[in-house]
Predict the structure.
Amino acid sequence: MKGLPVGEAKWSFRAIPDRAPTIQFSKEPEIAGRNALSLSYGVGDDYGVTQADAQFERVAPLAPNALPPRPLVDAPNFPLALPQARTKSGVGQTTKDLTEHPWAGAAVRLTLTARDEAGNEGKSEVRELRIPQRSFQKPVARALIEQRRELAFDANAKDRVQHALDALMIAPERFTPEASVYLGLRTASTRLKISRTDDDLRGVIAYLWEVAVLIEDGTMSDVERDLRAAENALRQALERDASPEEIKKLMDQLRAALDRYLQALAEQQRRDNNNTDLQRPDPNTRVVRPQDLKNMLDQIERMARNGDRQSAQKLLDQLQSLMENLQKGRRQAGPQQNQNNPLDQLGRMIQEQQRLRDRTFRQGQDNRRQQQQGQGQQKNGRDQMGQLRQGQGDLRQQLERMLEQLRKRQQQNGDGDQDGPGKDAADALGRAEQAMRDAEGSLGQGDADGASESQGRALSQLRRGAQAMADAMQQGGPGDGPGDPNGPEADQADRTDPLGRPVRNREFGDDYTVKVPDEIDTQRARRVLEELRRRLSDPSRPRLELDYLDRLLQDY
């Protein structure tokens, strides 16, 4: 520099202060999946955000002259997922299931915080909301959850909660006839009475949740808890961009948990069908097939494997919503469906025909085993075949009466000779009636194998008839009063699935209103990123090109 001896230089330095990171809500908090809290937020920092959290504060007015509360359970604060380990600018999303936390259902203030490596902290604006909670349908279960929350917020409420539990046990023969429920209430009351420390009270809080879930779900509680845990584990792995091996392991665990849940749900429904006090579900409720759920799981795994974690998370939210709707359909008692609704009648016929076919198949196996042992057809076997023949005949007569009503209706509407879904339904049901007649004849001759084959044809035609009948009703065919599948609500149910997505042919499919990248698109995007990273790692390339590649790979 001028004025300085040769070989000497003068430097000036200016310190740039490390600014505090910023974090803000990119959209309002919302409920996702099975009552999970979903948060979307944007973060930024000059050197990169390294940690972010969601912090809650209870909104509760203090009564005059009341003692300050002594909470037993801390707020359900949890860390937030970041787009990168050190994020200079980006948008993140975190979904957390807090339904089992004692604060669930409470009004709170939510603040998001972000920190950089130097410890600087930035806060978002405050949002007031109510933490999503699980919906309990049974009054005793709801009462236990309310008392659990009150005790969690204030240890001084012990006496009030004790009185409430004792009140729930008044006249158990009228209000808590189940011995297991009464025993659970009695145990909770006793444990609360002998509690001496805060840890003892926290044990009571945990036990009240177990009793409430047992009252609400019965034997479903354990398998549902496993399913929730598997869903949450997979969600957390997707948020932190876990390895493909870990994703595959968690997907296998989710599939196993879902299989156990569906088996328990089927067993519960079989028990409920024997309870005359339970009302039937809404006739417009759409049946979810196990194959539909399997397809969703396969698609989630495929998206995660191809790097499209965000779409996988959205589809997991849809799966959780679908399972929640299935659960609500099992618990809630809706209006009695019209027993004369043709689709309802046909659905029951399909179920009965399936049971008859299963029994016939097993009887055929027994007959073959007896013949191999040289016993011939025993009297018990002949009696069983006679009962099957009688049951098949009764079912055929029911179908004949339905066919007669359907044909009369077509004549009244003047479309008896026209082509269309109505005529297709009548033709399919006519073929089903003939197949039933063939099965009845085979059963009378002791031919279980032939009867089973005819019953399979009857089942196939019954399903075709049901599909054609549903199409006819969707196009404006005549209904049957209450529960009419042609009403506005049913029309919406025919066009959408329980998640509100459009469907085709009454089966669950993709959401045709949103273009989700398929596997080929995702693989192409991944190959482009890999090529960009490979070129950026090549130091022999011109600096201008390397700077351009670096800008392309930056997260904004």
Remarks:
- The chain is about 55% helix and 10% strand.
- Residues 342-478 form a domain with the Four Helix Bundle (Hemerythrin (Met), subunit A) fold (CATH 1.20.120).
- Residues 275-285, 332-339, 477-519 have pLDDT under 50 and may be disordered.
